[in-house]
Design a protein that fits this description.
The chain is α/β, with parallel strands linked by helices. The protein has one domain (3-243). Helix content is 41%, strand content 14%. The chain is built from 9 helices and 7 strands. It has helices at 6-12, 32-41, 56-67, 73-78, 91-112, 154-157, 172-185, 200-217, 238-243, and strands spanning 46-49, 123-126, 143-147, 165-169, 192-196, 223-228, 231-236. The chain is globular and about 45 Å long. The protein starts with 5 loop residues before the first helix and ends with a helix. Bound molecules: zinc ion (ZN). Residues 2, 25, 52, 55-57 line the site of zinc ion. Zinc ion binds next to helix 3.
Length: 244
């Protein structure tokens, strides 16, 4: 979901034929239900997994495993649990070796759960993207774009905030752990969530999940926007929504 990947993804993969699924850490098992659904609904020929270095989610995994830090149950279930029982050496080894290997294993085992899956037909590869560490961004940069897995061109979808936006693309049940990690990474000061979704049923599910999340955590500074046809059509007033 890292914002530093947005431009690379648009330039190298956004060919109108590629469905993007994005979550914290690029972990297939964290988006298992989404991936299974997509593989059942589409004739998938190739799966490319793109974990990256300087990854906040891998930082969280490392803290949990090496320093005993505790995370939210959903984050643990979708992300940390996958590494349980594995001996992680250094953060660098986790990002360069252990996580890419883990991504590949997880994706293969998801495929094997599908009756019609044929590993000779579906190519699976992992390409680690090396990113340079960046300084902490100001609060005006803290944007999450939440949308369904899609082939849509990013520059048509992201409004003006493409370089500043975390992007989460998974079914909502698979998205919330990533939303939690993205907000935690910003010290719970995250300013805006844009729900960019054309399917109104899915959009309503996303909105309900985010509203509930916000109410539970009491995130006063979190604003939620609905985006339709490339325009912000609705701003959800948090207080009204929570009362309702
Ligand atoms: Zn990351």
């Amino acid at each position: 979901m890292d914002r530093r990947l947005n431009q690379k993804l648009e330039q190298e993969y956004n060919d109108g034929n590629t469905i993007f699924v994005r979550n914290a850490g690029g972990c297939p098992s964290g988006a298992k239900n989404t991936l299974k659904r997509l593989m059942e609904e589409n004739e998938v020929k190739e799966i490319v997994i793109l974990p990256h270095t300087d990854c906040g989610a891998m930082g969280a995994v490392f803290k949990c495993m090496k320093e005993g830090e505790k995370f939210d149950a959903e984050v643990t279930e979708k992300l940390v649990k996958n590494f349980e029982g594995k001996f992680l050496h250094t953060r660098k080894q986790l990002e360069f070796e252990e996580n890419p290997r883990q991504c590949l294993e997880e994706m293969k085992s998801i495929g094997n759960e599908l009756p019609k899956y044929d590993e000779k037909v579906v190519g699976i590869s992992v390409k680690l993207v090396e990113l340079q560490p960046t300084a902490h961004q100001s609060s005006t940069d803290n944007v999450i774009v939440l949308m369904s897995p899609s082939t849509a061109k990013y520059s048509n979808t992201f409004l003006t905030e493409m370089n500043h936006s975390y992007c989460i693309q998974a079914d909502i049940e698979d998205s919330m752990a990533s939303v939690k990690l993205a907000t935690a990474a910003n010290g719970l000061k995250l300013a805006k969530i844009y729900i960019t979704e054309t399917n109104s049923v899915e959009q309503k599910k996303m909105l309900n999940a985010i509203t509930e999340f916000k109410a539970k955590l009491g995130l006063g500074q979190l604003q939620v926007f609905l985006v339709e046809s490339g325009k912000v059509t609705n701003v959800i007033e948090a207080k009204k929504k929570i009362k309702g």
